[in-house]
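User: Predict Probable membrane transporter protein's structure from this.
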Amino acid sequence: MEWIILITIGLVAGTIGSLVGLGGGIIIVPSLLFFSTSTSLLMGLSPQQAVGTSLVIMIFTGLSSTLAYMKHKTVDYKSGLIFFIGSGPGGIVGAYVNKALNMDSFNIYFGLFMIFMAFVLMVRSKIKPLALKSNKGIQRQFTELSGEVHTYSFQPMTAILIAFFVGFCSGLFGIGGGALMVPAMILLFSFPPHVAVATSMFMIFLSSLTSSITHVAFGNVVWLYALALIPGAWVGAKLGAYLNSRLQSNTLVTVLRVVLIIMGIRLIYQGLV
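Assistant:
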């Protein structure tokens, strides 16, 4: 029964994470904590173990998604590597800070973060690129299959600082960070949405590597659970990338937003009582 639950969690997290560029950790971490504290199906996990195990899964989710998006040629590798300059160290710092959190404080902070993510998802579909004037920075172009050409640009230092914060949240909470990075890429740097999601998953793959190595060193990974989660997450990530190129994800995002708010309130309540 444990394996069925874990594979299902991985599948759902991988599909949703890849479809909307979240990475899937926002699903895995609270799910592991719920089944370990509210049921007898999984052994009691600490927040550090849930986060460490989630980040190992993010490696495979990010890699699977990136390989799928490569076929659609929507991954901006050069920009992703620049973002990783910030997200890599940020993930390591977040993993170190994670050590200081007990279950109650983790539940409160993670619950607040989930509600914040729900708000970000609510406004993400409505954001438009800001008309930022800049004669400097890196300029990129992306050509749609229809022939439409998108031009976008960003200041490297600004991008690295934003990515550091995203990486910090990733290492701290065990999430991919795409929920923060994708809106920033669209709003601040005028990335086309499909390119933002695909490049975000590439960055998640790289930053999860560094974050998870730190958590492995701390002994925070439950490998038996990770092995059960990986197959579902791998398949789900490919499914999400496939759906991303063919479907509007608004309905799914709306459902996810409601779920995040409910789960966030529940975590905060658990942390306070």
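The chain has a mean pLDDT of 83.
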